[in-house]
Amino acid sequence: MCIFTANKMCATLEKNLNLVYYYRNYRSKMCAGIDFTSGDTGILSKKVFKFNKTLLCVLILAAALLLAGCGGAKSTRAKADETVHTALFDFTCGQAEVIDSYNGIDIPEGDKLVQFHISVTNTSDSGFLIFKDDFQLQWGDGDSDFGVGFDAVDDDMLPEVTGVSPGSTLEGNILVAVPQDTTTLTVAYQETYEDGSDADAYFVDLSL
Question: Is the pLDDT of residue 76 over 90?
Fold first, then answer.
């Protein structure tokens, strides 16, 4: 993830764009198409110039972030038993299987019950919470062809939320009901930036 600092960016722009200020008895200077003089005044004061220089830096920085997107979000695709590496943790989804029933879970008419094992290992330096519903389950291209796993009914299923310390691993089964004709179940995890925008996305395709 790219991190910009205003001071560093302004220093780089000042060097590359030759942003300099002139004292009295010197003519003004055009920079990046902007004339740093004002009205009949021969030059800008040092204080005013610094304000304009800072404003220009902010505008260019904003444009750079919008255009470059800090390198842009990426999408990673994997298959069953392959380990996926996210910013904070690694996760692996085992082979999916169709089962007839599970501990009293109701299966809607026309659906089948699918189960798979998932393990999540904290690879960061801090502890955090893992939510079962962070892993979206997708089974088609329709607007309603997605969902989340059933809430746990025993200790073998992945809990609703669990704290994981650095280096520790959380494991459990996820169960979901999907239409009878479903042939592929996709486990999706979406990272987000602090401002709420989408970052990297991860997809694991499980054959049924």
Answer: yes
Q: pLDDT digit string (tens) for 113-127?
A: 999 999 999 999 999
Long-range contacts of 51-55 (CB under 8 A, 24+ apart): 53/10, 53/14, 53/19, 53/21, 54/10
Q: Which residue has the tokens 């290992």?
A: 121
Burial of 135: CB neighbours in 10 Å, binned 0-12, 13-18, 19+: buried
Query: What are the φ/ψ torsions at residue 70 (nearest 5 degrees)?
Result: 55, 35
Distance in angstroms (rounded) separating the CA atoms of residues 137 and 76: 16
Considering the entire predicted model, what is its pTM? 0.66
- Over residues 18-42, mean pLDDT: 39
19/31 Cα distance (integer angstroms): 7
| Cβ-contact 120, 130 below 8 angstroms | yes
Phi, psi of 178 (to 5 degrees): -130, 160
Q: Give me the half-sphere count of Cα atoms (radius 13 Å) on the Cβ side of residue 8.
A: 3
Contact present, 135 and 189 (Cβ < 8 Å): yes
> Residue 17 corresponds to which amino acid?
L
SS3 state at 78? strand
